[in-house]
What we know:
The complex is a heterodimer of chains A (242) and B (526). Chain A is mainly beta. Chain A has one helix spanning 152-168, and strands at residues 32-36, 48-52, 85-87, 90-93, 96-106, 109-114, 117-128, 134-140, 143-151, 174-177, 182-187, 194-195, 200-206, 209-214, 219-224, 231-232, 237-241. Chain A has two domains: 2-168, no CATH class; 174-241, CATH 2.40.50.100. Chain A has one helix and 17 strands. Chain A has an eight-stranded antiparallel β-barrel. In chain A, strand 5 and strand 6 (109-114) form a beta hairpin. The longest helix of chain A is centred in the middle third of the chain and has 17 residues, at 152-168. With 526 residues, chain B is α+β, with helices and mostly antiparallel strands. Chain B contains 19 helices and 22 strands. In chain B, helix 5 (113-120) packs across helix 6 (122-132), helix 13 (412-425) packs antiparallel against helix 14 (435-442) and helix 18 (493-502) crosses helix 19 (511-521). Chain B is globular. The N and C termini of chain B lie far apart (70 Å).
Amino acid sequence: MAELTKQVEPVAAADGSNAAQSPTIPDDPRAVRVRLAAPSRTGEEPAMRVAPAPAPEPLRTTNPTVGTGPLGGASMTPERPGDGVLAQRQVLVDGELSDASVQTLGAGRHALREGGAVTRLVIEPDTRGEGGSRVREVLVDGFRFLVETEPERIAALRERATKGRATAAHTGQLQVKAIIPGKVVAILVAVGDTVTAGQQLLVVEAMKMQNELRAPKDGTIERLGVAVGVNIEIGDLLVVIS
Amino acid sequence: MTSEPTPFRRVLIANRGEIAVRIIRACHEMGMEAVAVYSDADAEAAHVRLADMAVRLGPAAPSESYLRIDRVIEAAAATGAEAIHPGYGFLAERAAFARAAEDAGIVFVGPSSDAIEALGDKLNARRLAARVGVPAVPGTLEPAPVDHPDRVADLTTTARRIGFPLLVKAAAGGGGRGMRRVEREEDLSAALVSGSREALSAFGDGSVYLEREILPARHVEVQLLADHHGRVVALGERDCSLQRRHQKLVEEAPAPGLNEERRRHLHALAVTMGSAAGLRNAATCEFLHDPAGNFWFLEVNTRLQVEHGVTELVSGIDIVREQFRIAAGLPLSPEVVEAGERAARPASHAIEVRLSAEDPAHAFAPTPGRVGRWVMPSGPGIRVDTHIEAGDRVPAEYDNLIAKLLVYALDRDAAIDRLRRALDETEIGGVQTTLPFHRAVATSDAFRDAELSTGWVEEHWDGEAARAAAARRALLATGLAAIGSGFASTGASAAAWEKPHVAAGPAARNGWRSSGRANGVDRWPS
């Protein structure tokens, strides 16, 4: 999943859906598509497809591991039989066979086992979602994510329907949106100005700090979405550069 | 400890957040009543809940509430408070505030207004250091003529002599506000203007000056306590090198790598500054420590520091309690004097991490919001100073510090082990915090080897990579759990997912466990 590290400019708006590139997704009705949901979704992070392996191999038992997490060194056999093993054995992750399982530990806590590594994480009850999808807050390594889960077959249908629209929306415009809430205290450009990448556009005061927002690319200021003194929220349109 | 009369009957705490809670706790331990003040954003905040009385100051904006000297003094007078503790931030280092309290016949728990003026103005402090032979960071001793563009040319000559890169700093500054790093001569005037503008908006004083940037450097500071009888004691030093944009992230006591002789030298420099300034009560003398072993005086903070707790853990002294005793005119307690004598030979180690509502993967941008899950660590050697509970709001108007997690142990290695364990127990939802960064620090070889510098964060922290690695596991675990719960395969997909929410009682909290049992284990693989 190295591509996850290649994020686009975080202030840039991203539109359209982008499914993970995977060769074969089995037509398994249990398959799901998971992706970061806004505001955790800041760029073009790809979705992940998770499906049961087509012909499950027998359970691999007692594979002693030297884990790095708090459960490191535990055996692969559930410690508490019957208690909350949600999924185990082999799965297909973006079409690739993988040894991964997740076990519930109570109160939203889960243990993810992947290879020899164990990660303890929290998956909260869902908060929202559209259609057949659900959004849950997930805490891993101190990071919090909103993760949207959708049945794979619904995601595939939706993708087919929106494919044309996504390409049409790509016009070379860059919408710069707020990634922090705060108050606009200075605007240093005007509509029609030519700007170069790195040039200061405006100053946002948040939590006593003045944050200078700079142009992510060369271009012309096509639109200003804010004025001095205005309070902004995450996701508010600040500037359109063409 | 012998029982002695309570220093004051009633004290007003002119602050909010974790520090107000910390001070209220000291009041209650000493048998004093605590009066809280609050803005509309804090009407239900922890410090209001804990206090014996609370007085509304005004709307959320600090300038209309916590920074209103007149309203705070009025509140103290109206409630019959005999003393005001300012905490840190807000009015803590405003000489005008201390003076207003003095004029109203209310004891200000801190240095005198004259000492705050002399030491709080960094240019004044730099001139004082020069007078008493304490080496200060090279730079200017007078405010830069920002309003006189014709005189900026002279300043360029001075800047060239100091050398680039250099720092533009606010004379009234703190926490990096008004500070600008200047790499090239041609950027100097722009940095002076923008630094001065930020300083003016943050402190009401736009004076800025120039200082050489010492890199690499460690940030080392000495905790001072001084009574009204001329005694100044150094309680020990702290290393606060792990900073970002001059905001401290991790602090520890003692500073690693100093021997007893260097410690004595450092503490003596701080005591010299404190004595020369006629300091009373609590203050901190900050230095930069360069690789050659020199200590360069930076500034004196005439207040309780955010990170005072690590010194409390190592010295055994309750600094806030001592502040109240000193403010009441009592001499430094024998415990403090003894702790001062031991300070160069510390026998334990403490580390503090600041959990803040900031996104460490996105340039530590503020993340105000409502806290969801809130699980703090506990057990041996742990102290958590916080004002937050699950469901509390982190307002955008104020500092984004939501908890200080402190650990202590007999030595630094054991303290780091404990920190790692404590951070594993910590769970915070609802708002992104600096927790991932602190987890990385606690497992970092460089940190364990005490390779500390003010550039550490830039050198050792790749927030985007850490976030991407965590995101991948978040997706995988969520996907696996969804499959296990039969989310997609049931005809009405939402039903299996939603079912646990119908159930009442504690089990309802975890949406997936019961559905996992019902649908996952028995059903898959089928």
